[in-house]
Write a sequence for this structure.
């Protein structure tokens, strides 16, 4: 899911994480392999935020899904994997 500016700012305020800038070659490579999205990197790999299934009827929630893991210790290459929950949710307001 491509986050809008308000969602990016809210996720950053709550979690302290910021997305890969869209003006970088890293973002271009991620978009080529994973499609149009707002991408984040951490010590485990690449992830995206998606709407939580349980957010119907309440304020919407976003949850983080890991989509790739680092292939080496130097963190220079990612291996695509089935999306898996990272266990982090953000309640939008």
């Amino acid at each position: 899911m491509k986050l809008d500016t308000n969602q990016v700012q809210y996720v950053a305020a709550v979690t302290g994480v910021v997305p890969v800038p869209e003006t970088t070659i890293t973002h271009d490579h991620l978009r080529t392999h994973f499609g149009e999205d707002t991408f984040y990197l951490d010590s485990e790999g690449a992830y995206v935020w998606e709407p939580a299934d349980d957010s119907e009827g309440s304020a919407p929630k976003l949850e983080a899904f890991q989509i790739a893991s680092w292939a080496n210790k130097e963190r220079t290459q990612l291996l695509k994997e089935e999306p898996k929950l990272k266990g982090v949710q953000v309640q939008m307001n």
